[in-house]
Amino acid sequence: MNVARSLNNWRKYRQTVTELGRMSNRELNDLGIARSDIRAVARASVAL
């Protein structure tokens, strides 16, 4: 079960990084996210 959960978390992380990475700096700024913070935000979203 842990392997499946880890794989699912990794997929969610990658999807979040990809989606945020496609946003413009202005869109990210509107959300209060700096481009350099994308990975940290993605990690936090998986840790919930």
Helix and strand topology:
Blueprint: H1 2-21, H2 25-31, H3 38-46
Helix pairs in contact: 1-3
Structural account:
The protein is mainly α and 48 residues long. The chain has one domain. Helix content is 75%, strand content 0%. It contains 3 helices and no strands. Helix 1 (2-21) runs antiparallel to helix 3. The longest helix has 20 residues, at 2-21.
Mean model confidence by pLDDT? 94
Structural class: mainly alpha
Shape summary: elongated
Low-confidence segments, given as residue ranges, are none
Query: What is the number of helices?
Result: 3
Order of H and E elements: HHH
| Number of beta-strand segments | 0
What summary fits the major beta sheet? none
**Count of spatially separate domains:** 1
End-to-end distance, in Å?
18 Å
> Rg from C-alpha positions?
12 Å
* Residues in helices, as a percent range: over 70%
SS strand fraction: under 5%
Pfam family, one: YjiS-like
Domain YjiS-like: 3-39
InterPro entries: YjiS-like
Structure at a glance:
InterPro entries: YjiS-like (IPR009506). The chain is an all-alpha fold and 48 residues long. It is 75% helix and 0% strand.
